[in-house]
Sequence to fold (373 residues):
Amino acid sequence: MVVMPSDTRSAKPIDHYLCEPQDVTERIAQIDPVAYDKSRNYLAGSVTWLSPFITHGITNTQEVARGVLQQHSKGSAYRLLYELAWREYFHRTWQQLNNAIFHDIGNTQENVQSDQLPLAIAEAETQIIIIDQCLKDLMLHGTLHNHARMWIAAITCNLSGTHWQEPARWMHYHLLDGDLASNTLSWQWVAGTFSHKRYVANQDNINKYSNTSQANTWLDVGYEQLENFIAPAHLNKRTSPHYDLTLPGTPIHSLKGCVALRSIWQLNPYWQQNTPQQLVFIDTTLTQQWPLSPKRWQFIQHWAKLCNAPIVHGTVDDLKKASANAQIIHEEHPACNHWPGLPQPRPWLYPFPAKPFSSFSQYFKQVKKSLQL
Ligand SMILES: Cc1cc2nc3c(=O)[nH]c(=O)nc-3n(C[C@H](O)[C@H](O)[C@H](O)COP(=O)(O)OP(=O)(O)OC[C@H]3O[C@@H](n4cnc5c(N)ncnc54)[C@H](O)[C@@H]3O)c2cc1C
Fold:
């Protein structure tokens, strides 16, 4: 028997994100870090659902941490700060390694049978009911709980032998919070190319954290059987997903004077608000490599409008030509390294790593020291 309570579904509709800046501030003030600590691994747990705002710079890790610490002790907020630090660690790794993060970083992925996405994932037909529900929610709403991301990546990479790159691109396309560092490096973490061990989950684990009780599935086996797993036939059918490449906005035109040039990762209406000329620039080379879904563009258009920033697009070379007579201000971001103009620093929870780090635990030691956790 399968028990599927209605709150098991782990998704927020897009309306939750087409809101005003003060709604984001209120949601930060409402975070209960103790409930978060106890329940974050459960699909119905008290997670913040803030990541689309953080990915797009509408808020940031520093502001979330500050908002929580205004009302709660560092001890109660420890787990949330720890997770925020993961996000920063992924971005620091991107800053350090540049485009190398888009290939196997450490180990080469083992047992790869295919580069193509399993059809069962693309069509939400894995036969694991809660996974299929989460996949449908991802494609419909663009949101997905962390544990569901881990399960989907584990099935894709480690049980059906798929190289992580294409599936990561596919998930990034659908996510409202798709972040090149967090997404790429999390897929690599699951696939064992950025960690010591591949991550796998069986039916018991999925049932426990999704509050379901599906049994007798192809995943209803012990962990030792997952070691040298032979995938069921339906996981071996492959597909090349279709990506809609339509972009909002108009081609970049010649710019003059001082322009606050936002990337899609800086859509905070209060950023550079004293600069009258505001634009959002879409780098078409990047979006061809990493396309975004129409829902994601809808979210970006909503926030660009709140910033009073029309959207323009082109290659970085087009931008350089168009801005030859302008003074460009943009915010530092690894995807904007080649943009012309003055990069402004962005807010961090832990502003600058004092020492080199080669793992999250080394990095987090520094964060703990600097935040006196
Ligand atoms: C395969 C895979 C792909 C992922 N892709 C993305 C992605 O494209 N964009 C993205 O923002 N996150 C990604 N994550 C990390 C994580 O799943 C999301 O940040 C989290 O689920 C967002 O939901 P939330 O805001 O409710 O998080 P909460 O649990 O409420 O956490 C608050 C914030 O802390 C940070 N955070 C929490 N958990 C993690 C984590 N495991 N890794 C990094 N940061 C974390 C996020 O900024 C998040 O918004 C991915 C994880 C996996 C396993």
